[in-house]
Specification:
The chain is an alpha+beta fold. Helices cover 36% and strands 32% of the residues. The chain has three helices and four strands; from the N terminus they run βαββααβ. The chain has a four-stranded antiparallel sheet with strand order 2-3-1-4.
Length: 97
């Protein structure tokens, strides 16, 4: 079953452009990852929050990408930009509703 993953990232306002530059490059790999159907980025300038909306073929595809990112130092790469806890949420996509 397809899933939509929403990641809410609180970014230090002074580092927003640097964060977006890094994420721009990271998302090229994410979009090419097996099972990724789409990734969109939404920026709330006033609050310094970034929302990443990802569509995946299955929760397993997303989990595999997430594991790969963790193994390759994603947390260290983004730690200087993030102002708090990242809030991931995973939603099943219901075509029957």
């Amino acid at each position: 079953m397809s899933v939509m993953v929403m990641l809410e990232v609180p970014v230090l306002k002074a580092k927003m452009e640097g964060f977006l530059d890094v994420v721009r490059e990271l998302l090229k790999e994410t979009r090419a990852y097996d099972g990724c159907q789409k990734v969109e980025t939404f920026v709330e300038e006033e609050s310094g929050r970034v929302i990443l909306m990802e569509l995946w073929e299955t929760a397993g595809h997303h989990q595999a990408c997430h594991n790969w990112r963790m193994e390759n130092g994603l947390v260290d790469t983004l730690s200087e930009f993030v102002a708090g806890e990242v809030q991931p949420r995973i939603f099943a996509i219901r075509q029957d509703v």
